Amino acid sequence: MEDNRLTIALSKGTLLKPTAGMLEAAGLPSDGILSDSRAMIFDYPGEPPIRYIICRPTDVPAYVEHGAADLGIVGKDVIVEQGKDVFEMADLKYGYCRFVVAIPAGMTGITLKDLNYKRVATKFPHVAENFFRNRGLQAEIIELHGNIELAPLMGLSDVIVDLVSTGRTLKENNLVELVTIMDSTTRLIGNLVSFRTKYDVIQPLLERIKALVKEQ
Amino acid sequence: MRNREIPKGLRDLLPEEMKTRRRLEKKAAELFTSCGYDEVLTPTFEFLEVVEAGGNIREKLFLFMDREGGILSLRPEMTVSIARLAATHLQEEMLPRRLFYSANVFRHVQPHLAQYREFWQTGIELLGAAGPRADAEVIGLAVQVMREFGLDNFKVSLNHIGIFNSLLDMCEIKPQDQELVRRLATKKDLVGLTEALDRLPADDLLKETIALLPTLHGGLEVLNKLPCIENNPSGTQAVEELTASYGALRDMGVEEQVLVDMGILRGLDYYTGVVFEGFSPDLGYGLLGGGRYDRLLSQFGFPCPATGFALGLDRLTLVLQNKEEEPSRCLVGGADWAAMVATADRLRSEGRIVALDVEGLDREQLEAKLTGRPGWSLLYIDDQGQGGK
Question: What is the rounded distance in angstroms from the CA atom of residue B63 to the CA atom of residue B53?
């Protein structure tokens, strides 16, 4: 392993395109990462050499926490759900979405308090559980892995906690947003040791990226 | 086979790893002893009241009750227990008192590689001495012990907890906001920290400085990037103490291994002065940590300054595995048990590692057994009592 190589874990999917643009603007290579959809590792010679690992967004914090990647680019939604021990370095501002509690349209007129002891379907059990517990509410969390909006339709849950960006999916499934839990955007995260051992590379990069975000 | 399971986050230590670990412990113990440190050991569990004198980390504790109704906690680290031990037994002794330990500690954490619920720490405590020389002795020993272990590319980062605390005090914000800022800074959530500070009513330059702290890392010049600190007496004092400790370390010739890092806050509440962490590029987690805790012993009625560190043996073992050559082993077989024992004893007294054939096998069977096992040699004693190959 090359000692001074900077390894960055990138989230594949919708974040990859804006991420490639951001990397390029920050003076890092990005050739090929958008066009070659099957490769998972991209190496670029240079000073320092750069390596990208393209992986599922939910895997990015693990790579970074264990030092398999020095840096990672991933949504706050993933970071907060996983609670991994990483250095959250900068808000990149793109990839906006928010965690919401959504209820079937027919349930309108209720408040959060009425959700005590209700069943909550979600892909984000930690976020959901913390949210209800902090408000003194008990909720039965049902963890699902996709298409959360189906759960209330089928009677599996009373409400859902999900990530929405435009809210279109909710509307299509006859769900309405009751309350926003938190906003999420894309973050630059770093391994706590790498930040120190590769400070001379990471700190200037961090400053460039922060300046870029500020300009926008 | 349910009866083979072990609880989450624990592990068995097999011979290879134990060898590395014992070697590390031995080297550390020799070094600490040569510097005047004496070994102590405290009970594996303590009353919760003792553990909580070090701060509230209740969600990380393994708690249970004794039959008299007391709440007990497996020790989550050694420093608090040693402070209690010193307050109970060592108050009359000459200060400073130098102690070291090697012990298992227990924390209810989410287990993953290099983070277990039972793990082993070796460390030192220097009790009854304030000032840069005491700090430098302890940090210098941290550097030296890593060198003894054969780690060449490690660094130790220093900070002074008073720098962050004094900047936070200058903000004049509510205690719960202070707590939030402290938690976000300790967690290294730079985004959350910046956002939280933005919302708080405080001087802009001050807030910028606090938000900058987690990324300030380098030589002593880092301390020049703290614009607000000169207006604050306790902050100025913290900078002076850190500079003095750094200077003492430079005079010890360990400057190469030492850095300043304003992001090091340590998780535990009891630190009061210079704090530090050691790390290596070979592992994504810290290898050692420690610092000054001048108020902890007074919790036990023994007001006296103190500093120390603990290193994580499990993590060090990951980095340092297989760096020592295995000595070869000899298997002594034969028909004459008494002759075998005598031969084995003689070889052992020469420093060899010798095992006896307790199965009573003949030469051919023993040769077959050792085929393909490098590191073993056979000594078969035939009827004449002579050792053959």
Answer: 15
| Spatial separation of the C-alpha atoms in residues A26 and A18, rounded to whole Å | 12
Residue positions counted in chain B: 389
CATH topology of domain A6-95+185-215: D-Maltodextrin-Binding Protein; domain 2 (3.40.190)
Place of tokens 């209810």: B108
Among B187, B188, B215, whose Cβ lies nearest the Cβ of A203? B215
Q: What is the mean pLDDT of residues B143-151?
A: 92
Q: What is the CATH number of domain A97-183?
A: 3.40.190.10
Q: Which of A66, A89, A196 sits opposite B261 (nearest CB)?
A: A196
CA A185 from centre of chain: 7
pLDDT tens-digit readout, B271-317: 999 999 999 888 888 899 999 999 999 999 999 999 999 999 999 98
- Which pLDDT score, from 0 to 100, does residue B388 have? 47
For chain A, say whether B222 makes contact (Cβ under 8 Å): no
At B150-163, the pLDDT tens digits run: 888 899 999 999 99
CATH number of B7-320: 3.20.20.80, 3.40.50.2000, 3.30.930.10, 3.40.605.10?
Answer: 3.30.930.10
- DSSP conformation class of B112: B
Residue A59 is given by DSSP the state G
Mean pLDDT confidence for A187-203: 92
From A37's Cα to the closest Cα of chain B, the distance in A is: 29
Q: Do B130 and B153 form a contact (C-beta atoms < 8 A)?
A: no
Q: Find out whether B137 and B96 touch, Cβ atoms under 8 Å.
A: no
